[in-house]
Specification:
Helix content: 40-55%
Shape: elongated
Order of helices and strands: HEHHEEH
Distance between the termini: 57 Å
Radius of gyration: 21 Å
Number of helices: 4
Low-confidence stretches: none
Mean pLDDT: 91
Number of strands: 3
Structural class: alpha+beta
Length: 91
Amino acid sequence: MNALERARAGRLHILGIMEAALPAPRAEMSPFAPRILIMHIHPDKIREVIGPGGKVIKRIQEETGAQIDIDDSGEVRIAAVNGEGGKRART
């Protein structure tokens, strides 16, 4: 039981140090943090987002730096290296 008590004391000590450094979660992530956004569109609109030969989706990806994946149900997943690129791709 001594080992468990020591482990608990060590864990609480580390958590105390962590809380002193960051007492609460940040209100918003860093604008430079990678983001994954999920949105839904009507399945009939998928063709418009992709465009002829994939031109529209490729242009969005090139301009924003985001990776866009659309499934047949209309779920759109946007993975961006920063918040601004993700917002621009979503728009």
